[in-house]
Amino acid sequence: MDFVNAPDCICAQPQYTVYMNSILMHLKNRRLIWQGHQSSDDQKHHWHSGFEPLDELLHGGWPNDGVVLLQSDCGIGELRLLLPALQQRQQQQQRLLALIAPPYQLNGEPLAACGLDLSQILLIQPATSQQALWSAEQCLKSGCCYAALLWHDALEIPQLKRLQLAAQQGQAVQFILRQSSALLNALPLQLSLQLQAQPQGIGVTVHKQRGQRSGRQTMVNMQRHWPQLCMPQPANNVVRLHQQKAG
Amino acid sequence: MTQLWLYLHFYQLQLDKLFVTDNSQAVAIVDPRQHQIVQRNEQASQHGIEVGMGLATAALLHQDIQVIAYNNEQEQQALQEIASWLYLSTSDISLYPPQGLLLRVHPMLMMYQGLDNYWLAIEQQLARLNIHYHYASGPSPLAARMLAINAHNQLCADKQQAMQILYEYPLSRSELTAKQQEKLARVGIRTLQDLIRLPLADIARRFDIDLVNYIGRLRGELQHPQTFYLPPARFEQQLPLLYEIEQTQYLQRPLQHLFTQLEQFLRWRDCYCTELELQLIQRDNAPVILSVHSAQGDYLAATWQKLTALRLENIQLTAPVTDLKLKALHITSKGSEVSDLFDGRQGVMRPLQLLSLLQAKLGREAVSSPAVADDFRPERACTYLPALQQADLPAQLHSQRPILLLPKPQPLTDKVQVMYGPERICSGWWDEQPILRDYFIARSPDGRWCWIYRQADQRWFLQGYFA
C-alpha cells in the first residue's frame, strides 16, 4: 500500500490535471512519498550485525544512530549478539565505545579475543542511575563515540528523547540493555527488540522499528561464532553425554 | 652607561647542596671518568686533599673519606634554584652551567643607588643559601667570568682598573684552548697583556676568528648576547569576595572572572593548562580544595568553567566562602593538533575532552579501560587501566571466557546443565594465592550461559555470565 506523506503538496497545485499515477510518480521522484516495504534508509548505509537472519529482520542491520532498546535476561548472549557489529564498526570508524554501568565486572579478555581494541573502550561506572544517563548523553553528544551501551532499567520518555537527540547529534547508537519485560511501545525509540534464550542462540522479536512493521521474529544461530555456547543439535546418530549437576 | 657585569662562580655547588649531618666527615666529589677530586670539603682539605688530586692519592691521605660521584644534572638544578632565588633581587640573570651565574649589574644601579648597595643585597640573598662562591665584576661578561673563576673576589666599577688586573694573568688562566695558547706561546705571547697590545686587525690576520671574538668580547668591544633567565610560568590568583557565598552555584560569576584571567595568562604564553587547583576559602573552616583536570589541556575560560561547575556540583559547603584561590598546577605547551578536513564527521569534542568531562563529574576512578593481564587466574587476568591507555595484550587470549564476571565467585545454587568442559586452571602457587579449579560452561534452565567451577573440595561456584 502506498502512503502519501505530503498531501499539502497536492493541495497547493489544484490545476494538476494528470492522472493519479503520474502525480504519484512525480511525488515519488521528489521523495515525498514513503512506501511501506521500503526501508527508510538505503541498504548500504546500514550497519551489518554480522548475523544474516538479524540483518534480514532489521532490513539491513543496526541503525546508524538513535536509541536501540534490547529487553533481555542478563547472560543469554545479548552482548555476543552485538559484538561482531561493534568490532566491525570500531575498525571502520576509529571512534570510542562507551560501556556504562554494567551489572557485573566487565572482562576485557573475550572482548579482546573477538578483535576489539580495549584502549578504545571507555568503561564508565557512575554512582547513580542519573549519572549513568548523563554519561550516556555526553558520550553520544561528543561525537567521539560510535556507540554507547547502557544497562538501565527505569526509563522515562524525556530521558529517552534526550538520548535520541544526542545520538543523532553525535551520529552514534545508544544500546540500552534492560531486564524487565514490560512492553514499551510508546517510547521514542529507533528500534526495540525482545531477546529470548534459544537452544542454538537467541530468538529476536521486533517490538518496534521506525518505518517497519512490529511483531516480526527470527532466530539468530550462534553456532558458527560460539560453538561452545550452543546446545548440541539433536541428531539421531549421536549419543549425548548428559551431565546434570544438582546444586 | 658603561657596562658592568657580575659573575658568581659556585666552585663546590654539588658539595654545598649535599645534606651532611656529620660535620667532622671528610667528603669529596669525584669525577667518575677521570677519577679526580673535583670538590672537597673543609675536613678533607685539612687532611691534605686538594682539587685535581687522583682518587687513589686521596684515599691514601685519608682512608675514611666519603666519596660521591660528580653529577652535572644536580648542579644545573641547583643553579636554577639559585637563579630563581636571586631573581628576587636582580632582574637580568644569565645561566652559565654548571657552576656560574652572570648578573647584568648596570641597569640595577639606579634602583640600588650604587654598586655597594647592590652587592649588599645580592650577598644577603646568597648568605641564606649557605653556599660557597667566588665573585668578581667586570666591564664585559667574559672579563667578569675570568676574574671570578680565578677567585678575584672584588668588585670594581672602574673599567681600566679591572682590565689592568685581568691583563696581568697568564694565558693559562683564560678560557683559550690549549691549542690556541700554544700557538700564541710560540710567537712569545704569554700574558693577556701581550695579546691585548696587538691591534685586533693584526690578530685577525694571523690567528683564527675565534680568538678575535674572544679578545673583542673580553674587552667589551664586541657584542656578547646573553640569554637571560626567566622564572617558570606560574598562575596563582586569589579573589576576595565582596559577599560571603554559601551555595556553590553562586560561585560561577566570581569564578568566571578568575578563569578569564587564566585564559589571558595562557593565551599570552601560548600554553595549555591540564590541571587546576581551586581553593574555596571558608569562614571559620578549613578551605575546600578541588583539583580540576583536563586530560587534553585547555586554555579557554568557558571550558574550565564547565569542568569546574561539574566538580562543584558534588561539593557541599560547610561554611560561607570568603575567598577564591585559583592555581594552575600543570602548564604545558600546546601540542599540534591534526585532523582531516575531509574526514566528514567533525566531532564536537576530542576523546580526551570527553574523558575530562566525564572524570570531572564522576571522579577519576569512575572511568577506565578494560585490560588483560598475563595470568591464568580469571580474577587476575581481568584488570582495568586508566582510560584510553594503550596496553599490551598477552600472547594468548582465551576465547572461552565470559564477558561479565561476578565481583566474587558465588556458591552455585541453581540447577544447571553442564555443556562444555572441564578446563582445569591450576596456577598461582608462586604468590600464595593458588587456585585449582575445573571450569565448565553451563546453561541454566532459563537459558543463561554460566561459567562455573568445581574446587578440589567438590564445591561448586558461579563466576560469570557469557552475556
Automatic annotation (TrEMBL), chain B:
Pfam families: IMS. The keyword DNA damage applies. Keywords: DNA damage. Residues 25-147 form the UmuC domain. InterPro entries: DNA/RNA_pol_sf, SulA_CellDiv_inhibitor, UmuC. It comes from the Bacteria. PANTHER family: BLR3025 PROTEIN, BLR3025 PROTEIN-RELATED. This is Y-family DNA polymerase.
